[in-house]
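[step 3/7] fold_predict: job queued, chain A
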Amino acid sequence: MIFKITYQETKIRNPKREETKTLYLDAGTEIEARHLVEQNTPFNIEFVQPVDGKHLAYEQKNPDFSLTEFNK
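[step 4/7] structure written:
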């Protein structure tokens, strides 16, 4: 399943809406997706949301859409 993860690039500063970024990740569960991001980045995760069907089709229309892969 594809997950949309919104995050801040650092855990040090207070989150600012204007600095929220997004990445997309293919993982089995929301817990696995969160774990992969926490283990491979210094990001402050705000929200993990599964996307499928029409929602996924809409997200894929964005030219910046790409799946993030982490080396295991």
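[step 5/7] annotate
The first strand starts at residue 2 and ends at 8.
The chain is about 25% helix and 30% strand.
exit 0
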